[in-house]
C-alpha cells in the first residue's frame, strides 16, 4: 500500500483544477472598496440658510461657519470588508446642528456623528444594498435613503431636518466621500 502512496499523491495534485484558484468576484469588488475616504462635498437639493446670514445655498459646507470638534473638511468614511465572514461595513460622518433652543438660537454650530451600515451589492451595476442599519442613530442623525458608488466616490443621501430662519426643514443631503490614495 505504501508503494502506491507517491503515485496517489501525484494523481491527486494533477487532478486539481486551476479554476479552483480563480478570484471570487465578490472578494475582488469589496477588496477594491476597502479603505478610507475623505469628505469632498455636502450639498442639498434645496438652498438653505443654516448660518442665519440671510443667504441661501445648496453648498452646505459654505453654510457651516461654526464647528464643534473638527471641521467637516476633516470628516472621514471607511469601508471594511472581512473576506472570511463576508461581512461588509461602511461608516461615515455627517454634520449635525447643535440647536439648544428654537427660541434663542445662540449656537449655530455643527458637530460630527458617525453612521455605520452593513451592506452588500446587487446586479451587474453593483448597486449597494443596505443589509443592516441602526434606526436609533438614524432617528438622531438622519436616515440613509440611498448610496451610490462611482469612480471611487460614495454619494450617501441622508434625509434629515435642519433648522433655518423659516423653522425646521426636512430634506435630502448628499455627502460625497472620495477614496484616499
Automatic annotation (TrEMBL):
Protein name from the UniProt record: Lipoprotein
PROSITE patterns per the UniProt record, alphabetical: PROKAR_LIPOPROTEIN
Amino acid at each position: 500500500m505504501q508503494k502506491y502512496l507517491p503515485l496517489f499523491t501525484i494523481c491527486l495534485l494533477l487532478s486539481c483544477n486551476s479554476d479552483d484558484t480563480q478570484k471570487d468576484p465578490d472578494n475582488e469588488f469589496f477588496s477594491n472598496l476597502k479603505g478610507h475616504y475623505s469628505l469632498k462635498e455636502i450639498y442639498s437639493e434645496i438652498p438653505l440658510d443654516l448660518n442665519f446670514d440671510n443667504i441661501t445655498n445648496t453648498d452646505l459646507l459654505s453654510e457651516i461657519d461654526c464647528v464643534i470638534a473638527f471641521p467637516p473638511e476633516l470628516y472621514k468614511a471607511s469601508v471594511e470588508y472581512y473576506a472570511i465572514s463576508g461581512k461588509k461595513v461602511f461608516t461615515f460622518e455627517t454634520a449635525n446642528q447643535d440647536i439648544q433652543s428654537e427660541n434663542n438660537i445662540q449656537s449655530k454650530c455643527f458637530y460630527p456623528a458617525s453612521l455605520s451600515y452593513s451592506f452588500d451589492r446587487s446586479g451587474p451595476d453593483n448597486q449597494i444594498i443596505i443589509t443592516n442599519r441602526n434606526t436609533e442613530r438614524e432617528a438622531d442623525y438622519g436616515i440613509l435613503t440611498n448610496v451610490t458608488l462611482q469612480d471611487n466616490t460614495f454619494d450617501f443621501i441622508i434625509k434629515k431636518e435642519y433648522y433655518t430662519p423659516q423653522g425646521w426643514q426636512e430634506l435630502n443631503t448628499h455627502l460625497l466621500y472620495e477614496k484616499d490614495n
